[in-house]
Each structure stands twice: as C-alpha cells, then as structure tokens.
Amino acid sequence: MENRLRLKPKKIARVQEKLKQRRAVNHEYLSLLGRYECLREEVEPGFRPDELQPVIDDRAQLAEMAILKVKMAEKNKELAGVDREVMIEELDIWPHSFEFLERRMRRESNRFLAAGEEVWASERERIGERRDSSFFSMSNLDFHDCLEALYREPGAPGREAMFGTSTMGETMVVPSDGWSADSDGEHMVRCQISGELFPVADMRTAPIVPDFVHTSDFGPLLFGGDAESLRGPGNSLSLHREIAKWFGTYKLVILPNNPEETPIRRWKTAVISPQLNSERFAGQETLVSAFQSQELVFSDEERPVEEFAYFHFVMALVRAKMLNCEGWRDVWAKYWINPPFPRASLYMRECMMFALFTHFDFCGLDLAIIDSWIQGNGFYEDEILRGREKDELARRILVGVEEAVVKTEDEAERIAAPDDSETESETSEDSDSSEDSEDDSEADSSDDDSESDGPEDDSEADSSEDDSEADSYKDDSETGSSDDDSEADSSEDDSGADNPRDHSGTGSDSTEYYTMKE
User: Fold this and answer.
1) Which of 84, 257, 286, 353 has the most crowded CB, counting CB atoms within 10 A?
2) 252 with 375, same domain?
3) 402 or 283, which is more confident?
C-alpha cells in the first residue's frame, strides 16, 4: 500500500482536493438546510391537536422556502457529482477489471441523474403545478405538446410511455428481398453489419434511436419539427442478436463510409469500445475487430436516417465519457481530428447537443472538441427552451438511454440462458452416449475373448492326454503367475488412482481456492 501511494502522489493529491471540495459543498448544503428548517417553523408552526390552527398567508416566506428547496437539491446534485469524480480518481489509482469499473460508474452516474430529478421536481413545485398555453411563449406553440410532456407529473398518464419497453426483437422489419432460405427450407435473414445470413430466430430489429424519444414527444426538440418519423424503417437495422446487443449498448456505431458524400448512401461500422475488439462473434473464429470499417449491406433503397445515426453516435461518445471507459479520450480525439459526418449537415438542435455533452460537467479541452461537433452538425433555431428545461430534457434522455441499455442487456441474457442450458445438456448427453458406447465395446470385446478362448481350451484338453503331469503342472504354474501379474498390475493402477501424493487432479482446484481466499 505504501509503495502505491509513493508511486502516485499527484493522483492522491487530486483525491484529497476533491474530498476538500466535497466537505465545502456539504457545509453549504447543511447551511441551506438550517435556513429552510427555520423558515418552515415560522410558516408551519407546531400546534397541539386541540388547538386552533390559524391560516398563515406569508407568500414571501413560502417563495423563499421554495427557492431554498431548489438550492438544496442543486447542492445535493453537486455532492453526487463530486463523489463521482472522487471515485474516478480512486479507481485510477487502484486498477480493477473492466466489468467492475463499468458497474461502479453506472451506479454513480445513475445517482447523479436521480439527484437531477430532485432538482427538477423542486423547480416545478416552485413555479407551480398549473400549466396552460399562457405559460409558454407564443413562439413555442408548435412545441407545446413536447413542453407539456416535460412538465408532466411523475404519476400522470404518459410516464410509462416515456420509459416504455423497447420493441427490439419483437418484429423483424426487413424488406421482402432480404429473406432467403437454406437447403432445409429454413428462413434466413442477412445481418446488415456482418453481411452473413442467419436464421430468423437469431435476428433482431435494433432501433437506432430508442423508442422512448418517440413516445415522450421529445423528437421535435432534438431533431426539429420536420424530422422523419422515428417509427419509420430509417430508424432500425436488421442485426444478429449479439451485434444488436453491442449496438444497443453503444459499443458499436454506424458512420458514413465517405464523410464527403451527401446524401449518405454507404455506411460502415465503427467499434467505440476497445474492449470489444477481442471478443468473438457468434461462437465463431471471427473477432469483433474484423467489423471495424466494414461496409453495411442493404437489400433495397432504404437507408438509416442521417439524423438518427448521428444521435446514436453522439450518445456513444457521451456514454464513453460518462462511464469513464478505457480509451475514451483516444476515441474523442480520433473523431475530433477526422470528423466522421459531412460538415454543414445539420442533424440535431445545438442547445440539446451541448446539454447532452455537458450534463456531467465537461471542461477544458473537451469543450473545444464538443464545440467543433456542434458547429459542424447542429442547427440553431429561436430559443424555445429555458436553461433548466434543457438540463432536464438532457437528463431524461440520458435516463431513457440507460434504461434502454439495461433492457437490451437483460434481453441478451434471457436469450443466452437457454442456449447455455442446451449446450450443457448436449454435452452431458454426448458424455453419456460415449460412456455407453465404451461399455458396449468392452462387452463385445469380452464376448470375443471368450469365444476365441474356447477352441484353444479344447485343443489343450486333447493334447493334455498325451502330456505328463509335470507338463500340466508347468502350465498351471505359468497360468498362476500370469494371473498374479495381472492382479499386481491392477493393484498398481488402483493404488495410482488413490495415491494421496498424486495431486494432478486437484492442483487447479486448490489454486483456485487459495486465489479466491486471497
């Protein structure tokens, strides 16, 4: 432990600085909480049940309480952000497995997003519950439904629709000429990323933009009022279930094959997660790294909508930074130096792109990279969202994306579980059949031996009439010695199997035990 601390003094100093910052933020939070409790005692004094409770109309104090509640929620969110930064520094000092890092980062990021929900609830309570057309400016009437969805109560109708289940895998949406049949007559579908044909049962329809963006009416706020429908064929790809999992968890993206081509007709695959390159695809010898820069295969004129593909690309970059994935800075630098999408092609609203990228407080050089992506591929319209509305919309999109990722992972695990059980059953059946075949072969060989020994015994019986007693005694002694030898051999085999000094069969188990114990 001491050696590790000596090797990384700068990182230890950063952790200490973050902890100092956390103590300061916590002190501010407690100060706000004290003021809030004092005001609440003045506005809502305690009375006995039998006492007459007067009606207190102190709107100024009530307004101040609402403001204090919002500030406390903001400080709580700031605390969650500082804790997240402390954990990033600590995990950088003491390395862990990729799965452990991702699990911890997802937990801390979800805590930060939940704290943001508390901020929005306090803000909504401060402004008031009532919403009508006069609340929004006249220029926002086209987006009235979108903003109404933003202010919808957590328990109001539409909450379930916002985080509705994904339709991935429920229906295969493929063109008529995308079907084929093998020699057995089984329907086959071509995976648009790998280019191979697979049975229909192994194929999925993977949405590019998650369904909740459509069901929550947030599409126009992201892509503008004239964007194509999220329910159309341009928002889905036909993929093998393993590739659909990687695509749905934003470890794979699709990019234009030629960044100068407009409109985009040819697309290629890009691996965002470096850890994915060493994995094998569908139990084959093919590595996922083979899909890097591989062109997608389309059976007809339908192509992914450019705006939707750009959203998927942006969310892959945001999640790589949010989860502090290994190599995320290299990925950002790569697409900063070589922009993958055509310049001057406007895909998303600028304010929403900035809100998504900066929701977890990006700073420094990251802002220059973000600005290059926004200026090249974002469009600007008259401001239709307030500051807190942008943050809340970005938070809801991030929450919805994370829930869609979890559902994609659960779907993949649910499908993989029966496959594993079938493989184990097939293995056990093969072992049982091999044991049965060995028993049958041994029985057959014993029968053959008994049949072959019969004539020899008869000939020996005929010749023994002319032999002397000495010869018969000699034969008996040789037979007895051979039996003794066979018994000795068998005893040696048994002793070798039961020999306590032979640890060849238990060495791996003991090593695993002590490894787990340590």
Assistant:
1) 353
2) yes
3) 402
Query: Is residue 509 very low, low, confident or very high in pLDDT (cuts 50, 70, 90)?
Result: very low
The pair of structure tokens assigned to 425 is 């059953």
Residues 295 and 399 in one domain: yes
Q: How far apart are CA 177 and CA 187, in angstroms?
A: 12
Pair 120, 204 in one domain: no
Amino acid (one-letter) located at 330: D
Helix (H) or strand (E) holding 188: strand 187-190
Last residue within a domain, chosen from 105, 127, 149: 127
Whether pTM > 0.85 for this model: the answer is: no
Extract the tokens encoding 6: 């000596």
Contact 269, 163 (CB under 8 A): no
**What's the rounded Cα separation, in Å, for the pair 25 and 446?**
85
Q: Where are the beta strands (DSSP E) in 191-299?
A: 197-199, 203-207, 236-240, 252-256, 267-271
CB 65 within 8 A of CB 36: yes
CB 232 within 8 A of CB 223: no
CB neighbour list of residue 21: distance below 8 Å, 6 or more residues apart: 82
Domain count, the chain: 2
Q: What residue has token string 């402390």?
A: 86
Domain region containing 38 = 2-45+57-127
Q: What is the bridge-based pairing of β-strands 348-349 and 378-379? A: parallel
Report yes or no on 286 lying in a domain.
yes
408, 423, 438 — which closes off a domain?
423
Q: Are residues 98 and 216 in the same domain?
A: no
Q: Is residue 430 part of a domain?
A: no
- Whether 150 is covered by a domain: the verdict is no
Candidates 396, 341, 397, 332; CA nearest to 368 is: 332
User: Across 36-50, 161-175, 336-350, 361-375, which has the greatest mean pLDDT?
Assistant: 336-350
Query: What's the rounded Cα separation, in Å, for the pair 372 and 354?
Result: 11
The answer as to whether 290 is a domain residue is yes
The model's pLDDT over 360-372, given as tens digits with 9 standing for 90+, comes to: 876 555 788 888 8
Beta bridge partner(s), residue 379 = 349
Regarding whether 386 and 276 lie in a shared domain, the answer is: yes
Q: Which residues contact 34 (CB under 8 A, 6 or more apart)?
A: none
